[in-house]
Amino acid sequence: MIQKRLKPAFSMLELIFVIAILGIVASIGAELIAKVYSGYITQRAEHRATMKTELAATQIANRLISAIPGTVYRIRDTNAYEPIDSDFPAGVDGDDYIGLKWVSSDTDSFSTASTPGWSGFCDIDASATPTISTPGSNLNLTVSVITNLAGGTFPTFMPTVFFPYDPTAYDLNGFAPTSLTFGTTVPTHIVEHYKLAWTSYALVVDQTDGHLYLYYNFTPTPSASFVNQPRTLLMRNVSTFKFKGAGRTIRFKICKDEQISDNMDENITACKEKAVF
């Protein structure tokens, strides 16, 4: 007679316990994975926003370094211009301002060759109104650089000259290799140093889309309007753009909103502050 040995097996109760334990482990694991993934996409958005804000702030600082003192204006939402270091008008605060505008010295032709396009030095003794002598210059190079930067055609508006502590833009109508001739606005006195400018810039947060734009290639005078001028997108979704001037120092703060992911409505914000001297 053959006898069969019965092998022990899981009872129904044991199976239920195993299934319950596996379910608990699976739910904990899924929650951990979800938290890890959520943390990853949040950190990715923070990194992306921080990098974009840092790049934009660096570009702004690099542009403002070449701003001619006395030509930096803040722009109100009504397109009114005020010197950046002036007090706010009555009933106006920082939230009413949408951007900055300034005249930039021509750093491109100044530094593009060993002999600068314009030297920044005026020989007073060799100058006679309306022409100034600027030895050490290669103004033919300046004309060439400006023409190239303006898209291949020399601007219809003429470059201007600024003297220290004088915010007046003295327009030019003549270039020789080492001399400049003024146009309609002739200085009553000249000094040894000057800066040449051929364009103004403006940084403005568009009130319709919330993006920050850089306006360029327009008349190099403090009173020039940026409206309807060429512009390029500098940064999207700008939540804050604040600035303050004191003497020859400009301090600004810029913040950007970044969506965490396409499937999430939440945003994170990254900010950057810089001071320009």
List the helices and strands and how they pair.
Elements: H1 12-65, E1 73-76, E2 81-83, E3 97-105, H2 107-111, E4 123-128, E5 131-133, H3 139-149, E6 160-163, E7 166-176, E8 179-182, E9 195-205, E10 212-218, E11 231-235, E12 238-246, E13 249-261, E14 264-276
Antiparallel strand pairs: 1-2, 1-3, 3-9, 4-5, 5-8, 6-7, 6-9, 7-8, 9-10, 10-11, 12-13, 13-14
Total domain count: 1
Q: Estimate the mean pLDDT confidence.
A: 87
Provide a count of the helices. Answer: 3
Low-pLDDT stretches: none
Q: Determine the structural class based on helices, strands and strand pairing.
A: alpha+beta
Using the alpha-carbon principal axes, give the shape.
elongated
Classify the helix fraction into a percent range.
25-40%
Percent of residues in beta strands: 35-45%
Largest sheet: 11 strands, antiparallel
* Pattern of helices and strands: HEEEHEEHEEEEEEEEE
First-residue to last-residue Cα separation: 106 Å
Rg (C-alpha, Å): 31 Å
Strand segment count: 14
Describe the structure.
By secondary structure, the chain is α+β, with helices and mostly antiparallel strands. The protein has 3 helices and 14 strands. The strands form 2 sheets. Strands 1, 2, 3, 4, 5, 6, 7, 8, 9, 10 and 11 form an 11-stranded antiparallel beta sheet that branches. Strands 12-13-14 form a 3-stranded antiparallel beta sheet, covered by helices on one side. A hairpin with a 2-residue loop joins strand 7 (166-176) and strand 8.
